[in-house]
TrEMBL record:
GO biological process, any: mycotoxin biosynthetic process
Transmembrane region(s): 30-53
Entries under Pfam families matching the protein: UstYa (PF11807)
The keyword 4Fe-4S is assigned to this record: no
Protein name per UniProt: Tat pathway signal sequence protein
Family of this protein: Belongs to the ustYa family.
Keyword Amino-acid biosynthesis among UniProt keywords: no
Entry keyword set: Membrane, Transmembrane, Transmembrane helix
Amino acid sequence: MGDKEEEAEGLLGEESLPNKSIRRPLFTRTAFIITIINIIVFFTSLALFVISFSQRYQLNFELRQASTYSPIFDRLDLEMRPRKIQGTLFPDKESASIARELPNAAADEIWEEWELSRFYPLTRDEIVRMGKDPSTVPKLEDSEWGLGDDAYVGAFDVYHQIHCLNALRQNAYRGYYKLTTRNHTVMGLPEIHINHCVDILLQALQCSSNVNFMTYHWVAGQEYPQPDM
Ligand SMILES: *[C@@H]1O[C@H](CO)[C@@H](O)[C@H](O)[C@H]1NC(C)=O
């Protein structure tokens, strides 16, 4: 009987093995599809990793994350470094900014230099990438400027912001700048300009401000803690 069973198993085994391999092959259609998907997912994530890795080494990577497009990011290395804000009410005269000076001709010359909106050439594609319409932007003609056939007028926003700050400063010293005293209940062109400047600076500050802190400190001779502005 034992021999017969072995024989039967042997026969079954011989018969069932080839049968199984026909019905359920080692590499089924499903397994094949899953493997293909796996390979695709692997190479996609590998590509994304390489792209993000290479972007990290793009010029001005950190600034690009916190700003809308500017062609300057591709052209200049805007090296970032921490700067300590000079906020004291009584700075040393030698290290003080011209903003701390009473109005004078020498400081005015520097203010004028800083607020001047200089032209900076932009290409047509750069203007489009900024989301603007290049068809109404004046061209810097090659015959006149020698900048090639794809140069259009641009100017840095920061110069306009400095112009606005200087306009407010001059209004604060309107006696020196011979600005006539105005009736504050009447909205004339000078008021429209001043309010435009206040709004420009307010938006610039609110859009670019950081989340740094002032801290308050006990200072000898002061009754209350003072901010380290
Ligand atoms: C300012 O303008 C208002 C409205 O025109 C007028 O009523 C007021 O008298 C003016 N004030 C001065 C100081 O001129």
